[in-house]
Design brief:
475 residues; Acyl-CoA_deSatase_haem/ster-bd; single chain; two-stranded antiparallel sheet; mainly alpha; FA_desaturase_dom
Length: 475
Amino acid sequence: MVPSLPTPPIDYIPSDVNIPDNYVEHTLATTKELPPITLNNWWKELNYVSTIVLTVTPCLAIYGIFTTKLVWQTALFSVFWYFVTGLGITAGYHRLWAHRSYNASVPLEYALALAGAGAVQGSIRWWSRGHRAHHRYTDTDLDPYNAHKGLLWSHIGWMLVKPRRKPGVADVSDLAKNKIVRWQHQWYLQLLIIMAFLIPSIVPGFGWGDFRGGFFYAGAMRLTFVHHSTFCVNSLAHWLGTTPFDDKHTPRDHFITALVTVGEGYHNFHHQFPMDYRNAIKWYQYDPTKWFITVCYWLGLASHLKAFPEGEIKKGQLTMELKKLDRKSHTITWPKSSNDLPVITWESFQEQSLTRPLVLISGFIHDVSSFLDEHPGGRHLLAKMIGKDASTAFFGGVYDHSNAAHNLLAMMRVGVLQHGLELESERAIPPSQRLQIVRAVQIADLIRAADGGENMFSFPSPAGNLYSADEVTKL
């Protein structure tokens, strides 16, 4: 008889251990949203705790601006405390606990737990549960701050009202085992008061006699900035910028977002590689949270910094570059392939050449009437090849033509010589199409066509993997 493992405490059992494979579809189909918010029920749907915090704090800050002089010492301390509490969220709540992108020593964990409490965004456990749901269900109705519901909703709206639908399940059993996380969760309200308002008031007060300025500027105003700074990760980072790693979802990279979010602005990278301790991978990109974690590593306070393999990152970048090239390729007129042209016998080619200037090169029949008088070598060199195979002359016998000449020639195709093009060789493919974007499914179609007896390949240009014409024909 196989001995059974001891059952862990109920809090430690993963909450998603028994969810069905079609969890998202099943949940959306079987659970109902709360009714829409209207003028008649809005006051019933408010989340009063969040609403009070997010409205009273800026009001205090504005009152302080008009009633309290800002001294330079308090201004500097306010900026310092902004970064301390901001890093509590970015380096602590986000990268350490929500994503486990590195390990922190006990002193660093306590410091980040305290700093995070000063940002007044809920406990580590509550915050991480919602953020893990955001990553798992990005841009769906199970995402607590779904960007598709609008910039205002993802920035602050989702906190002002009751959730219209319970966020998707996300396991935080690992955090339930962490004694520092449990400690912060238990004493969160007391820690919030100390870190958000007491210390910001006491330090300026005893330091340079500015209790009032400390409360309004280092306390209320600093907290307002920290709130909207980190909220921008949910809103601005899903709206402003580019998608250099993946465009499946809304997260984007932008320097401005990085500036206002303590380095969390390279959000497209983060959603692709969430367990990477970095947001910015280039040395010159602004990511003070990465720099903070790195310094902690040098000091022995952090370890096991996780970074995705460089090759995997480059694959994401290359995929997006190929997609951009594909979109650009659709704006260009390409030459017809052998599949799109009539098959012409040698006799018909000879006959038609008597009434129009047709030239045979690499199995393709070209009408050069529009280029006779434009030919750099003179009209006579083209005229003498009418009704003939000019392949040898074109490919270096008379002149080894440029890539531009190859590309231009391909646009003059009007037919394919019967039995003259069993397979489009690389010489028959213009340089502009030799490295062409072909989807894997299209390559499979080409292989099936070849196995079925088809004797001509075409090279369409939708996005996918990059193959040379020679590589595809060898398949």
